[in-house]
Protein 1
Amino acid sequence: MPVPRTDPGFARDPLPAMLSWATDPADPPVRRLAADRYLVTDSSLGRRILASTQEPFEATSAPFGAVPGWIPGHPDTRPVLTALGSALDTALTGPRTVATPALSCWPDDASLRYLHRFGSALLPAASPAVFRAVAAALTRSYALDRRPGRAAALRRRFAVSRANAALQGYLLRHRATPGNPFLAALLDRFGDPQTAALALHGALGAVCRAAATALSWTVLLDHGWRPGLAAGTVLPAATPTAPAGDRVREALRLWPVAWMLHRRARTTTELGGLPVRPGDHLLVCTFAMHRSRRVWSDADDYRPERWADPPAGYRDGYLPYGTGPGACVGARFVNAAAAQLLDSLPGLAAPIRLLDERPVLGAIATPPRFQLTTASCDT
Ligand code: HEM
């Protein structure tokens, strides 16, 4: 199969290409980004790739991607994932009046809000110092998304190391006084607190960064945001009518937080007529799949009301949480947590001021920063 090459600027800035390809009904199913790197935009090829987490395609990414020896979908992982699911259920039903930071600069503030409101189910009885270390790592991750560069990368690495050390100390203390099934399952699976801390940090990142980013996208899109609006633009108060759950679903269709899923070929194989060699990278692009004109009418528009009667067969190409054995175990939590906050925080409908013009398609799809109040925001 002839494989079209992409614009060489794609790796530096994928956003323009994404916005233009995703609206082209004649999209090729696979594009070549480099000699060993392919971008897959076809949903059936994408599903086939994601169905594999070891052979022929190895999954190496989030949220436990940094944990040595973790194989997504492997039976060994089940006790940890089951305990994580229960911890997330506890997070949703936990106390709702937790002290949280003032609403000011999103999406960072949404992350801190999630850390304070839901993170305590994963970190019971943790000291404020542990929360502060995790918060610093979250903030540094957003800063790196916005201003990539060596200095930002170093600052983030330092904050992540400090958070990992704080979580390791916390787990060591927990080992002396066990009681939380999720922490017990982590320690049981990994043995040493250092590796367990990496997994705990991964889970916290999924809750406080990925899930909180889904809420931020929903708030922004509810206010009528669209690409091209300049920084400084004020968007009037939101008046959404669709149910919160449908707004979150639609936000994740248009701006899937996990916009690109990664697999690495381990053996020689073929994919849609394309020869794939060991070591090749396959990037499954949910961003493009979610805007297929073959499935969605007005594919580039935010229309939450479409979820009252979604198009036939949409599930094949709607994969905000992946598919197959390594699919997300947090999907239910993401929608329920965002819907809970959208329904319970009237301040989220207030006018917003954009602080950036562009979203960032980096490790995750991050919205442009915005403010809901007059509070100041460090750049
Ligand atoms: C908007 C928020 C989220 C999005 C978009 C998202 C998306 C995804 C995707 C696409 C995958 C599959 C990755 C792949 O196949 O390469 C995945 C896996 C996973 N997600 Fe999420 N996720 C989110 C939030 C969460 C939350 C809150 C949790 C819970 C802590 C979570 C836990 C997991 C786990 C444990 C896996 C891997 C399962 C395994 O290793 O077997 N995710 N997620």
Protein 2
Amino acid sequence: MSFLKIILRNLRKGPATDPYPFGDTFTPDGLRGKIKYNPQACVACRMCEHVCAGGAIRITEAEDKSGLNFTLWHNTCAFCGLCQHYCPTKAIRLTTDFHTAHRQADKYNYVETGFIKYVACRRCGQPMVPVVKELLSRVYGDLEGPTKAFENLCEGCRRQISTESGVNKRWTEESKR
Ligand code: SF4
Ligand code: SF4
């Protein structure tokens, strides 16, 4: 094919590249972009903070001790995906939004934040991070009994109830022998 024919064919076909940044562009499903955090599904286990390769995540107690603040700095994030991989409740996930370019002066505005409000344990009244259904359904599946029984009970009370019910069961079994 002559060079002239190639030029004419390409002119007829039009541009072969994306119009970005003047128009939309394609992003593959697996692209690791900006991070979305859902405080309603978070159990404050701090695993994401622990595994974060870039040290981009901080979970700190609010000054008035009413809950926990979650902060993630996108300018420090390496988009490695470890936080999403290790999060037990899928409260943190990477999106395909790659628009992270910003001026140096704006770096503290490129954050993802969230707040987990403490609730009172329904047994002892201690302030606690709510036990979210994402965690309970992961532990107990569709079992409504235990899911309801452990709702909004602090760690200590859950442990105590589990131990007591275990001891009672064992005692009943022993007494039948
Ligand atoms: S993607 Fe990696 S670097 Fe970014 S917040 Fe998650 S663990 Fe940290
Ligand atoms: S986002 Fe996930 S890994 Fe991070 S503290 Fe919450 S539950 Fe744990």
